Amino acid sequence: MSITATPTLLEVRNLKVHFPIHAGLLRRQTGVFKAVDGVSFQVDAGKTVGLVGESGSGKTTIGRTLVKLIPATSGEALWKGRDILPLDERTFRPLRRRIQYIFQDPFGSLNPRMTVGAIIGEALEIHFPELSSTEKEGRVTTLLQRVGLRQDMMRRYPHEFSGGQRQRIGIARALAVEPELLICDEPVSALDVSVQAQIVNLLQDLQEELGLALLFIAHDLAVVEHISDSVLVLHHGKIVESGPAHEVLENPRDSYTRDLLAAVPKLDLPLIS
Amino acid sequence: MNTLLLIQKFRALNKTLLLLMLALSVFGVYAIYSATYWHENSTFWISQIRWLFICLPVFFVVSFNDYRWVRYGAIPLYLLSVMLLILVFFIGIKVSGARSWLNLGFGSFQPSQLAIFAGVLIFAVFLNEYHGLHPTLRILVCLGLTAVPCALILIQPYLGGTLVWIPVLFVMLYLAGIQKRYLLAMGLMGLMALPIMYFFGMKEYQQKRITSFLDPASDAKDSGWNILQSLNAIGSAGLWGKGFKAPNTLNALGYIPKTISHTDFVFTVFGEQHGFVGTSILIATFAIMLLLGLYIASQSRDPLGRLLATGIVILLFTHIFMNIGMTVAITPITGLPLPLVSYGGTFLLIMMACFGILQSIWIHRKPLV
């Protein structure tokens, strides 16, 4: 009998991100805020890992540290076995293509002074400089269609789109460089509920189609349960519980996870027979 | 004034300045239309045309009369403007949080605009007539003349209407022969007073304007909104702009607030529609106009004319610089309109009077033949 194990794309070991606290007239360091404190997990190819926790628990800090927007204090993040945290920007750039980020705020994450075509095209210019302008335009068209937008929309500016459409543009921009891992930082929390479902379904379709791995950061447990294969529950920068999504969310062992689940509002309406 | 003299004076007008003034006035109507065409029942551009027809006769009357009337007219005009500013305090109408306007029945009038115009006239007359006085005394009198209307404008509160006095006063004092050391001392004292002004003299929304000028993104949804939207509109326009009446512009979609798109932020709307090329042409036109004003000052037959012309040029420059500057975030938002372009009757009237005086200085620089 042969066992085909899913290869591990990213393995995070004992990651710590601490921020100094300054106070007083001379802004002397008076303490340390431990935003992420010894977090370990792994993301396998084609799988979705949900990262949940309340605001300020360190979810976004983990995501941003993994794409080196925030420097790590210590720990390792192994991309296919290679630690990416000590790499300088130049060495990391080819890997940046492989790990893309979808931001929480679709209103603030797109350059308002560029057309949608230029926003997506910019990623191509950086990572595929050999492409001609016709090829680039062709790629942008394909990407827009892939995320459910029309070709003619590439000439428009971000302010001409709704929140859901802007998030689709953000996804198209991330996909432009053919990533293997998408870090989705609360990608639906700024959207209406009906639009949230569309974006989550789009991400799932793209995952199936392209074999993407997702690190899905959210505080909405229903969304995380729907999309994730496994879940990590984060509290005060530490993982308090982890495991398969249905197991963690249906039979939580940690009291904090139970509190999180209890905080989800429920409709308690009488049934009409 | 007989007909022959009138024709002679008409012929003696500075044609380039006249042409630029008329071109900018017509352009103003176009800019106001393109900023407001999508409003329901928008009549701002028609109203601006009406004001233009009211103001043009004023321009010609001021142009054809020898500017030396200001020696007798400056004080009454200054006193009138101070009285109107006091009146605003009691019966003024509030627009955008500032009680700056008087309702005249057929329209509204902003006395602070008249005050700065009267200020230029009274500075010119005083500095010309009393050039023998000790510099300190001349400075103190000018500061006194500035303080009264400025205090009244500041309590409206209309910060821009106060700020515009500073460069006008400095340049006119300098031209009147006040030594640089006095001006430097004044400038340093002004700088030292800035923190006191900020913490104790400004209202919260005015402080927010300063902080949002330094970092618009810190309050993107509130005090930084106008600056950020303006930067986005101008920044996204590119070389040629999005075009006249282009669909889905930041203006047409209401990102530039309707209340300011045709007044303080008219340059933003024009910039979005006509891009770098359009705005460059507009700025170049203003620059030529200002240089022409300085040339007129240099050709004046007497120091009074030189002081008047330079004061007016500085007044124009301050408005242009502060207005365009705030739309591209190089100056804080002060609510100063763009000369001849922004919507507004009072300001157009004052501008026409200013251009009238410039023309009068030009016409009367030498005897008519």
Description of the molecule:
- The complex is a heterodimer of chains A (273) and B (369).
- By secondary structure, chain A is an alpha/beta fold.
- Chain A contains nine helices and ten strands.
- Chain A has helices at residues 59-66, 89-96, 116-127, 133-146, 163-175, 193-210, 221-227, 245-250, 255-262; strands spanning 8-23, 28-44, 48-52, 74-79, 82-83, 99-102, 181-185, 213-218, 230-235, 238-244.
- In chain A, a hairpin with a 4-residue loop joins β1 and β2 (28-44).
- In chain A, α3 (116-127) packs across α4 (133-146), α3 runs parallel beside α5 and α5 (163-175) packs parallel to α6 (193-210).
- Chain A is globular and about 55 Å long.
- Chain A starts with 7 loop residues before the first strand and ends in an 11-residue tail after the last helix.
- The relative contact order of chain A is 0.16.
- The model of chain A has no long low-confidence stretch (mean pLDDT 89).
- With 369 residues, chain B is an all-alpha fold.
- A three-stranded antiparallel sheet of chain B has the order 1-2-3, with helices on one face.
- The radius of gyration of chain B is 21 Å and the shape is globular.
- Classes of the chains: A alpha/beta (273), B mainly alpha (369).
- The A-B interface holds A 108, 112-115, 156-157, 159-160 and B 220, 231-232, 235-236, 248, 250, 253, 255.
Give me the secondary-structure topology.
The complex is a heterodimer of chains A (273) and B (369).
Chain A: E1 8-23, E2 28-44, E3 48-52, H1 59-66, E4 74-79, E5 82-83, H2 89-96, E6 99-102, H3 116-127, H4 133-146, H5 163-175, E7 181-185, H6 193-210, E8 213-218, H7 221-227, E9 230-235, E10 238-244, H8 245-250, H9 255-262
Parallel strand pairs in A: 3-8, 3-9, 6-7, 7-8
Antiparallel strand pairs in A: 1-2, 1-4, 4-5, 9-10
Chain B: H1 3-12, H2 15-36, H3 44-64, H4 70-91, E1 93-95, E2 98-103, E3 108-109, H5 111-129, H6 135-154, H7 159-163, H8 165-175, H9 180-201, H10 204-214, H11 225-235, H12 266-299, H13 303-327, H14 345-363
